[in-house]
Structure formats: structure tokens, C-alpha cells
Amino acid sequence: MQDAWSSREAWVYECLCCETTWDEVLEVRHCGDGHGNEAAIYERDGQPCTTPWTDSLCPKCQSRNVKAWAASRKAGDMPPVRDGSDVAMVFHLRRIHAW
Ligand SMILES: [Zn+2]
């Protein structure tokens, strides 16, 4: 039997080229495999999409040089970001496990 639940996450984006900021709310489907492992699938308008911290495109200048972070995260709770999507991923997973 699988564990599955959904939540909504607000993400904030900032373009590092033109400094545009915008946000987006994504549906997140969490699936546990019953062995303590967990996967999160992001959906935009009901369609599976890439994770918010990868593949973002600036709506203004079309740059892919975009920084993303979860808006629900408390200010000051964010580690310094170099460019690591891996870092964001790790912290995201940690946050899920903290629930
Ligand atoms: Zn831009």
C-alpha cells in the first residue's frame, strides 16, 4: 500500500539577468513507497512539470538564469545558494521529512 498526499507550495523566482521576480503555486504530490523513501512530483495546472528549481524561464528576458526558492520557508532559513540545484533538492527533501 502506498502513501500519497498532496500539498501546495508557493515558489518565488528571481531572474538573475533582469531582476524580475515572480511567484507560482504548484501542486505537489508526495508518494511514499512504504519503506521510508519518498518522492515528490510537481504539477502545474494538473500537468506534471519539472521541479521548480530547475528549468525555470524568465518571462521577461527568457533567461534560464533563474533562482527559485519556496516562499513558505522562513526568512533566514535559507542556506547561501551558490548555484546548486542539488542543494535546493537536498533541503527540500529534508523539509519534507521534517513533516
Ligand atoms: Zn529576466
Automatic annotation (TrEMBL):
This is C2H2-type domain-containing protein. The lineage of its organism: Bacteria, Bacillati, Actinomycetota, Actinomycetes, Streptosporangiales. It comes from Actinomadura nitritigenes. It comes from the Bacteria.
